[in-house]
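User:
I would dearly like some help making sense of a protein record. Take your time, and here it is.
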Amino acid sequence: MSNTTSESNRTCLPLTRLGVMMFLEFFLWGAWMVPMGKYLATMFENESDVGLIIGQAYSTGSIAAIVAPLFVGLLADRFLPGQVVLGLLHLLGAGFLYAVAGAADPSSFYWLLLGVGLCYMPTLALVNSVSFDLLKNPQKQFPLVRVWGTIGWIAAGITVGSLLPPLLEGGLLPAGVTALLRGDASEYDAGKTNLPFLLAAVTSLVLGLYCFTLPSSPPKAKGEPISVAKLLGFDAIGLLKQPAFAVFAVASFLICIPLAVYYAMANQYIGEMGIQDSLGLGSETVMTFGQMSEIGFMLLMPFFLTRFGVKTMLLGGMLAWVARYALFAFGAEQAWMLTLAVILHGICYDFFFVTGQLYTDHVAPRQLRASAQGLIALLTYGAGMYVGNMTFPQVANVFTETPDVFPWKPFWITFAAMAAVIMIGFAVAFRDRVRLSAEETPQENA
């Protein structure tokens, strides 16, 4: 009966409808996540340790990423249709985002943002599962849907970095919105205000309502016993007995420590280095070059996969990490170096994470593939990013000599060195010479 229902749902649903869902999903995330570090540095500039405030704020996403599989497994897989859970989470998330926009102290901001994360992080898996359920040929059609998520992230960055500042300058925002603005609006930098959170709140509200219009994606595991270990990917932990996979898993965890710094601090840094004066573009707009690069290198992945082994691809991604932070360290006020550092995000992400997803899918037995991907996600976006967000404020404190002057150069050098040590350790310890083809791309990570 369930199989018949699932097949009946795979109608000729226009790709544009799922594309709209994916566009809004990543637009609302990119709208607030990229400029948040800059906003907090402005909002709480008089606090004694604003770096710690920024790190704790970004750590909420990592905490939510650890808890997210429980939401998906318990609700969408067993009790409610996927599109209903999506709608409810986004409507609740809209309320949290609006509340975050008005938070006036670090403690309130942290707990409200944690609420945002707990509502949003489960939806990253849900938009994929709903798409798979409603598409006739997910293997071929899903990439056409997923690319709209990256486009949505790019659109959010351009909106915050280039489209909203003229509205601030021209006083064209409604009075009710401008009354909530934080920071020095005379700079006309939307990233230093709470406007991105308000934009994300409206987007989340629209997306929540939109999800209720999608065809039903019924629970797939209704009536099955609940296993917390399986939901978190722990039933795949036996794969760590394979030395090569264990090295890969440890490296994936470690490399996400310096990765967290990029998400939390890069936008603030290139903004402070005067990128807008050099290129005439807001820092949020420049940050979208990373996603544009990601699309380009994703299209080249089949070419690279047929010519290089897993080890070479993963090392290439790690080397890009080292180069990116070195460019940040020695490229202060050099717009071309800062821009190149952002563009390297495409290599960092595609060569390491996409190749890593393919390698995990190749190593894991069919019955453990989903759990293995969940385990790697837990180690990276959960544990690794959390440690990174808790670590970088301490690194900054070590090099701070003058209050209110952030030690950018030694800060970036430290994380470039960390990425280099991880890369060298991986090169020595990883012995698997497996090669993969583009056709092995797993559906859930297409």
Q: What stands out?
A: Residues 138-170 form the longest helix (33 residues). The CA atoms of residues 47 and 243 lie 46 Å apart. The radius of gyration is 21 Å. The chain is about 75% helix and 0% strand.
